[in-house]
Write a structure and sequence with these properties.
heterodimer; A: about 180 residues; mainly alpha; 9 helices; B: about 170 residues; about 0% strand; rod-shaped
Chain lengths: ~180, ~170
Amino acid sequence: MAEGAELTRVIEGCKSGNADSFAQIVDIYAARCYGYFYRLTGDRNLSEELLSELFVKLVEKIGSYKGGAFESWLFRIAANIFHDHLRARQRRKKLLDAKRTELEAAPTGSPRCDDKDDKLDRLQIQLNRLDDDTRELIMLRFYSELSFKEIAKLRSEPLGTALSKLHRGLRKLRELMEG
Amino acid sequence: MKNPDPDNLKELFERFMPPSDAETAAGEVHAGEDVLRDHPAPQPRPEIIVGIKLQINDKLAGRHRTSHSLYRIAAAAAAVIVVALIGYLGRAPQSRSNLSRAALIPTAIWESDDIASDDFDIAYFASEIQQIEAQVRALEAGEGENTGAGALDEVEMELMQINAEFWKE
């Protein structure tokens, strides 16, 4: 994880159009951003598409980054890309409903899955039982590693509201996983 | 996954509820996040990361490349090279000008200085063309084991084969 001055140097390189600096940003943030998209969509291919879109968008928008928490700026773009995807999904609701049914119908602990895959599937299924907004808030908090104040600001909602939603959502998720 | 816990959750919750409830709520949040940590998301595939970096390079260079457009351009360039070389080889030896390297290397396809690192297929394509170029130069200089009309036919056949391969993509 690049920290402080090192990250600032890399970002300055990006602003200068340096391809190596962008490659470093990809190396630093790809796993977290992919995890964010994957946990919101439950779809590896789609998550890869969104990840690709995110970094291409980053190239376009890096000039508008004026300092502050880079993660906050990056995850704001990621959240916007996810919302764009949701809007597109609404237009293709029929097709994606079929896919969701397929995912929900997947048996928990498929005998072909090893322990790790089993855990991944189970969490994804339980995450899908949370409402979209709560799931997004939980994933934003977990993968962006931003403070609650930054998250509340990013989501343009009061701190107490974000805190309350996260608390209820994580408690419910834990209950679902233990149930 | 790093969890710096940049907030003091208990303190944050205390703004909205009694201290005892705040402690419970903070504990529940931490426990919920432990569930997420225990179930890590899969990692993006390495080839996807490579692809994203290539896309970024294209974007920075003002190119908008997709695999389809890349192969279309490569195929078109291959066809042009075949036609140009056949025309060149068909002329009398004395009328041939010096073979220009720039005419054979597909700069119209790929402007990068580092073709090999940019795309394996283009590197392969360039390598084949360079090999043909060397053969043509040898023929032009009268070198090599086979310098007769059969050699020209052989080179022509190789060029045709390269062109056909690209049109398959």
